[in-house]
Design brief:
2 domains, alpha/beta, Rossmann fold, 13 strands, six-stranded parallel sheet
């Protein structure tokens, strides 16, 4: 009798298909979100992930089924698109009880089309404003920049309007999608941070030493993809001036991306490139100042993680960042693409350790009070349970 009850319980476990065009070993906000979310869901759902077979994918194991879709050999900016595989994606969609989309690249868009055809419950999480992200992947003078933005907007509107529900990280993203003509019902589910993992350093000098940095250096840091939309050129220009006028200062860049940026940073003596890291916490704890110079974002998990680690943050006023960062209270803003103002803000914090400390403490309190990872997980479970 007990065995029958157990078998019945197993059979009732819903099959959740997660379709994404960005996944490990390519570290970005979507991959990090899924890396945290999947372990929280796999005990309640029979999870299958559709993801691109990036180099090194063989080493990824979450204890779930992962269907790897072959990727093209070329990259668009730092993005390597997956190939269209209607047959394989259709097979997985037909077996699923719920289809959850993370992107609208070749995998996400195909999964939406097949889920709609099979009349499967279909929802998506909007990690980015795709047409803005695509546009900023091109240089400012590229003549096809506007054409690409328009094409992605048309595609996003078409596919997101096929979904039953869109999960969005902020009111700002909801409003942007509404203005874009995306009429699908939306529910705000804020991105959360595990503040028990992303903790402040207990000993800053030791934290620096642990990752091979000089304890006497002021460490300015960035964590994220090395993409054009991150505008790392502005950070590079600001730091270039700073290092000429200040001794014992280093810039630490955590992440992978466009080779041009890697080469540019590697050529400078006081800039340290770590590459992508599975665990960024030790590096965040070693930093004194965190900078996000992005031109476009939605929530910016990297900024929230830095704030949770009690870092003084300097960022642009993009995406939903102004919803949780208040200038001169728990961080500092600077105008997009303005390396002069960024330099002045960094120098201000370099000269005022007490200001850094106050901003960092307020930043962590903001995350702890308003951006709980447990709440994010619970809200997503509640949504999934409705289908």
């Amino acid at each position: 009798m007990g065995r029958k009850i157990l078998q019945s319980t197993i059979k009732q476990k819903k099959k959740l298909l997660i379709a994404t065009d960005s996944f490990l070993p390519r570290w970005d906000g979507i991959a990090r979100f899924l890396a945290e979310m999947i372990p929280k869901l796999k005990n309640e759902y029979d999870i299958t992930v559709l993801a691109p077979a990036f180099k090194g994918h063989e080493n990824i194991d979450f204890g779930i089924r992962i269907i790897w879709i072959k990727a093209f050999n070329f990259k668009i900016s730092d993005y390597q698109p997956a190939k269209f595989d209607n047959k394989k994606i259709s097979e997985e969609v037909n077996q699923a009880d719920i289809v959850w989309i993370q992107t609208i690249g070749p995998i996400g868009a195909t999964a939406i089309k097949q889920a709609k055809k099979a009349k499967k419950p279909l929802l998506a999480y909007n990690h980015s404003i795709e047409w803005e992200l695509a546009s900023e992947s091109f240089s400012q003078i590229d003549p096809i920049k506007f054409i690409v933005e328009l094409a992605i907007w048309v595609m996003a509107r078409r596919y997101y309007n096929k979904c039953d529900l869109l999960l969005v990280p902020s009111k700002q993203v909801e409003n942007t999608l509404n203005r874009a003509g995306i009429k699908t019902p939306k529910k705000i589910v804020k991105m959360g941070i595990d503040s028990k993992k992303f903790m402040p350093s207990q000993n800053k000098e030791k934290s620096k030493k642990d990752v091979g940095l000089n304890k006497e250096d002021t460490i300015i840091g960035f964590c994220g993809r090395l993409g054009r939309e991150k505008d790392l050129v502005t950070l590079y220009r600001a730091f270039n001036q700073i290092q000429h006028e200040h001794e014992k200062v280093k810039l630490v860049i955590i992440g992978e991306g466009i080779s041009k940026y890697k080469k540019m940073f590697n050529e400078k003596e006081n800039i340290i490139m770590t590459g992508a890291k599975n665990n960024v916490i030790p590096y965040l704890q070693a930093m004194d100042i965190f900078v996000l110079p992005s031109i476009t974002e939605t929530s910016s998990l990297a900024t929230m993680e830095a704030m949770s680690c009690e870092l003084a943050v300097i960022t642009t006023k993009v995406g939903s960042i102004p919803e949780y960062l208040v200038d001169k209270q728990n961080g500092l803003f600077f105008p997009k693409r303005n390396s002069y103002v960024l330099r002045k803000k960094i120098e201000l914090l370099m000269k005022n350790p007490q200001m850094r400390k106050k901003l960092g403490e307020e930043a962590r309190e903001t995350i702890e009070l308003n951006y709980s990872w447990e709440k994010t997980v619970q809200e997503i479970k509640q949504v999934l349970n409705q289908f």
